[in-house]
Automatic annotation (TrEMBL), chain A:
Family: Belongs to the ABC-4 integral membrane protein family.
Annotated compartments: Cell membrane
Gene Ontology cellular component list: plasma membrane
ABC3 transporter permease C-terminal domain segment(s): 285-398
Annotated protein name in UniProt: Putative ABC transport system permease protein
Organism, scientific name: Mucilaginibacter gossypiicola
Record Pfam families: FtsX, MacB_PCD
UniProtKB/TrEMBL annotation, chain B:
GO MF annotation: an example: transmembrane transporter activity
Family: Belongs to the ABC transporter superfamily. Macrolide exporter (TC 3.A.1.122) family.
Keyword Transcription in annotation: no
ABC transporter domain: residues covered: 6-246
Name of the featured protein: Putative ABC transport system ATP-binding protein
KW Chaperone (keyword) present: no
InterPro entries (alphabetical): AAA+_ATPase (IPR003593), ABC_transporter-like_ATP-bd (IPR003439), ABC_transporter-like_CS (IPR017871), ABC_transpr_LolD-like (IPR015854), MacB-like_ATP-bd (IPR017911), P-loop_NTPase (IPR027417)
Gene Ontology CC annotations of this record: membrane protein complex; plasma membrane
Keywords: ATP-binding, Nucleotide-binding, Transport
A Pfam family that the UniProt record links to this protein: ABC_tran
Length: 405, 249
């Protein structure tokens, strides 16, 4: 019996009981659709986290002061003061680093006439805007000259504008006060919105780091150093290079631990990706279980079908069907059910993924691999769960099958 | 020159029922030549069904030989038996055994689906031809539930004819039908036998039906009690004509 005949026979048999075939298929349809939709949601959230972190500058490297053993007591990193201008000068010789900026922040009250707003002022070098991928909506950025002269100029974020200039005046050229120090606003930052952790990135003032150091905090230490690796690929090389430079600069002996930490965005991306990767695995497992249940549904119906159609099997055998033909017929019925269900499920899964994006505006990505995988799993499910009922049918004795009531 | 279709020699069939051995057939020998219309008769328990299963190649003899159209059935495997049934035997059952919700044409095509040498167009052509032979050319698309009992049995006969078998094997083929329809079926059988030269082996327990055949084999207790040619074979057509027409009021 050729394949075409086989498919034809199986199709006719299913057609005789359309509703039942459809209900059996439903298990597979739901299983496949949920696998595809779940994986799409998982992949989508993973990608969106990745994109968000990249927009913060994926080749960004951050140096933080860190705890060091000091007479047996470990001290919190933030209270450590190890990063100085000497480190910046040393790091400027690093070959994998293109941009470098110290960072120092202070919290305080920003005041414009009768209005005030609690915010943060961040002191950085002109490189910082590039490192963090920040851009200006209006005005100009400060320059190296402003850094040298500790100029009282600042860039302003949208949230601060909303609170200090509620009537829509142009803040450029205006002077506001931060902790009694007057700052002239020379540029407006493009709004960045919230970051991945829900922090408002627009609630900020940015000024030359020397201004903050000398006029507000009166310190020679930096809280952070930001740097850009030449590109994402050399990030690791840049990290080890920076580590070595800082160790030399801090005169650490080989036996001593680093008194700083060098972090890259890649670490952050990996951490978050693995969290959402776990989510994807979890969702996939749940969806996979529903696919197995769908398969058991097929097996159940195929057993019922074999019993119910015992006489038909007897007849087919008496007119010349071999055991193999009967076996292939029932197997083909199971495969037709599972593959048709698979195709409908794939379509439904893609449609519902798009629907999720449309209605809930969750990002979704339908990956080819999840479509291929669930389709292959479907076919295997059909063969696996169809095999035993088909074998039962093939082993029937035609004489008894013909007499079966 | 006639050809032996069935050649049965000292055929025995025993079943093992627990510790007991049931001897259903205790040594049967007969031959059937091409073009014969044989009825096998016998009361229940006579071994009639066992013999039928063996003749139909659904079962194999324990001892003895069975040649169907020159093929030694005993030597064949399960799959080879299936192929032999497909090419050489046309079954007609008491309960018709048509596939439900399937058109008459597709029911008749069924045996040819298991013969890979036959193309789609040839399959269809032969099925239509077989349905014409049983005078159902008008009902190709009817499903069994849309046909009367007699029509269903005629579809089943068409299905038995479609693979051009060497022998039609009927098992109580008129058992579910009223007498008028039975005569119609017998008339069709006689026509196939006389005009197309089909060899027919007809198992029945009704002597009335047996009288339409050319030869009767009487089984009793696993042996042949009587094997006689039918001297005055009745014509089913004439009997049918003789029936009062007012039957269907």
């Amino acid at each position: 019996m050729n394949l075409f005949n086989l498919i034809r026979i199986a199709y006719k048999a299913l057609q005789r009981n359309k509703l039942r075939a459809f209900l059996t298929m439903l298990g597979i349809i739901i299983g496949v659709a949920s696998v595809i939709a779940m994986v799409a949601i998982g992949q989508g959230s993973k990608q969106s986290i990745h994109d968000q972190l990249s927009s913060m500058g994926s080749n960004m490297i951050t140096v933080l002061p860190s705890s060091n053993l000091n007479g047996g007591v470990r001290i919190a990193g933030s209270s450590f003061q190890t990063l100085t201008q000497k480190d910046i000068t040393a790091l400027q010789k690093a070959q994998y680093i293109t941009e470098l900026s110290p960072s120092i922040t202070s919290k305080g009250q920003a005041i414009n006439g009768a209005l005030n707003w609690p915010t943060t002022i961040q002191g950085v070098s002109p490189d910082y805007l590039d490192i963090r991928k920040l851009s200006l909506k209006d005005g100009i950025a400060f320059t190296e000259q402003d850094v040298l002269t500790s100029a009282k100029v600042c860039l302003i974020g949208q949230t601060v504008i909303d609170n200090l200039f509620p009537n829509g005046e142009n803040p450029i050229g205006k002077v506001i006060r931060f902790n009694k120090i007057p700052f002239q606003i020379i540029g407006i930052l493009n709004p960045k919105g919230q970051n991945a952790f829900g922090q408002d990135q627009d609630d900020i003032l940015i000024a030359p780091y020397t201004t903050i150091q000398k006029r507000i905090l009166a310190t020679i230490y930096y809280q952070n150093i930001y740097a850009s690796a030449a590109n994402e690929q050399v990030t690791d090389a840049a990290v080890s290079e920076m580590t070595q430079i800082l160790r030399d600069s801090h005169r650490l002996r080989d036996s001593e631990d680093n008194d700083f930490t060098v972090r890259t965005q890649a670490e952050l991306i990996n951490t978050l990706s693995s969290t959402s990767g776990l989510l994807t695995v979890l969702l996939t497992v749940i969806a996979g279980i529903s696919l197995v249940i769908g398969g058991i549904g097929i097996m159940n119906i195929m057993y019922v079908s074999v019993t119910e159609r015992t006489r038909e099997i007897g007849l087919r055998m008496s007119i010349g069907a071999r055991g193999k033909d009967i076996m292939l017929q029932f197997l083909m019925e199971a495969i037709l059910i599972s593959i048709t269900g698979g195709i409908i499920g794939v379509i439904l899964g893609i449609v519902s993924s798009n629907l999720v994006t449309l209605t809930l505006s969750w990002p979704t990505i339908v990956s080819e691999s999840s479509v291929m995988l669930s389709f292959v799993v479907c076919a295997i499910t059909g063969i696996f769960f169809g095999y035993y009922p088909a074998q039962k049918a093939a082993r029937l004795d035609p004489i008894e099958a013909l007499r079966y009531e | 020159m006639s050809k032996k279709i069935l050649d049965i020699r000292e055929l025995k069939r025993e079943f093992q029922m627990g510790s007991e051995t049931v001897r259903a057939l205790k040594g049967i020998s007969f031959e059937v030549e091409a073009g014969e219309f044989v009825t096998i008769m016998g009361s229940s328990g006579s071994g009639k069904t066992t013999l039928l299963n063996i003749l139909g190649c659904l079962d194999k003899p324990s001892i003895g030989d069975y040649f169907l159209d020159g093929v030694d059935v005993k030597k064949l495997s399960r799959d080879e038996l299936a192929q032999l049934r497909n090419r050489k035997i046309g079954f007609v059952f008491q309960a018709y055994n048509l596939l439900p919700r399937t058109s008459a044409l597709e029911n008749v095509e069924l045996p040819l689906l298991y013969n890979r040498e036959i193309s789609v167009s040839e399959r269809r052509e032969r099925a239509i031809h077989a349905l014409e032979a049983v005078k159902l050319a008008e009902r190709l698309d009817h499903t069994p539930s849309q046909l009367s009992g007699g029509q269903q049995q005629r579809v089943a006969i068409a299905r038995a004819l479609v693979n051009e078998p060497v022998m039609i094997l009927a098992d109580e083929a008129t058992g579910n039908l009223d007498s008028r329809t039975s005569y119609e079926i017998m008339s069709l059988m006689q026509e196939l036998n006389s005009q197309q030269g089909k060899t027919i082996v007809f198992v029945t327990h009704e002597p009335d039906i047996a009288s339409f055949s050319s030869r009767t084999i009487q089984l009793r207790d696993g042996r042949i009690q009587k094997d006689t040619p039918n001297a005055n074979q009745r014509s089913a057509k004439e009997v049918l004509a003789g029936l009062p027409i007012s039957d269907d009021y």
